[in-house]
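Milestone M4 deliverable, item 7.
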Amino acid sequence: MCDREQLALMAANKLDRRRFGGALAATGGVAMLGACTVGSNGEAAGEASTAAIGSGGVLASEVAVPAPGGTIGGWFYRPSAGKHPAVIMWPDIAGVRPASKAMGERLAREGHAVIVPDPYWRDAGHATFADFADFAQNGGFDKVAPWRKRFSAATVAEDSAALVAWLDGQEAVDGDTPMGARGHCMTGSWPIHAVKASSRIRAAASMHGGGLVTDAPDSPHRQLIGAGVYHIAIAQNDDAKAPGEKTVLTDALKESGAAGTVEVYPADHGWTVPDSPAYDKAQAERAYATFLAMLRSLAKA
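Output delivered:
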């Protein structure tokens, strides 16, 4: 799990913008967002004229999603024409920033309608950090600590339901194909809760997630259901700290009757996020390909 010790090491390594830019280039480019005005229906007003075109003919809009207690800010990426399977792509502890937007845009270029929601919408809102270097070097952990206290299985379920309802109201979304969800680090458990919360979400990918095995009744490993398809990707250094968790998760997956895999990757915590100092392109691509295969199998079902 991403903790103070890891962040101190990241800061000591002096993350810089050159590494950040190079990693983004490895993902296929940064998503370019236009200055859109959010309309009352939750999508950018005047979308046809204000939505930016990203690489590969992808439309990108800043959106507002109605939710219990407020509005979830987010960025919505989709191919410029047609209806497509939807995906919720939650960012890691550093929140929505160019790296996470690029990840959403890339998946949209694969033929999906992708929302990248702001996990901190109940507090400071989006654009809190420019990149992971900014988070690691400028007190990011302390800043988000009180915001994280608001998160629970119940809030993730509420947010998931709100995002699903909004996505199903978009013309670009194929309402007949199950949705997928992917989370990273702090949000690594969220796709598991999302599958439990909504029958529309069936593919869940947890990337180097924290808190997957706890003593709580609503621990993620107790939330796996037979209707889901899961890929639980564990970082090698997380596994070294808690080697028994992979066995607990594997057993829970079998007991649930769900399809899926639990795998320890030969990479460190944060390896799938392009502006993380632990980013490992080869292993990130392998995890991405696995998630893409999950989504495509649902589309064919």
